[in-house]
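[job 0417] fold request received: PAS domain-containing protein
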Amino acid sequence: MFGLRTRNQEAESEYRRFIKGLSDSMAMIEFDTRGIILNANDLFLSCVGYTREAIVGKHHSIFCDRGYVQSPRYQQFWDDLKMGKHKRGTFERLTSQRERLVLEASYFPIESEHGQIEKVVKIASDVTQQRLESEQKEAILNALDLSLATIEFDREGYILTAN
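[job 0417] inference complete; emitting structure tokens
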């Protein structure tokens, strides 16, 4: 009996250390199944520029563009999460100053002991700077492509394409 209790306590302690390590290194936020914010860690708050007090009790939509929030895609996004479907990808969101924020994130539903979805957790990394750099490089390449003369030949010397 005591051995089982000790193993359970050790497992719980290991679980708590794991969650703390994750929370210390990744931006995290928790929602209820309606999208209402329950909690967020300091890294997430730093990304979005809000205080915990300013967002707890508010809807996830505060981080989103109005057009997206009013779209069927946004409703489907939350319907899928309520049904237990995970979401992973790159998501464009807005900061408290309504500036663009790009997050590489996973949203995953958390089930109760009875198998009901009770909340949704999001773990994210801010990739805004990488996205901006990628877009700038692409813009430069597009500008070069438009401004430089290029000709493509086949093996016999016939012109295939030219700008």
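[job 0417] notes: The chain has two domains: 2-126, 129-163. Residues 2-126 form a domain with the Beta-Lactamase fold (CATH 3.30.450.20).
[job 0417] exit 0
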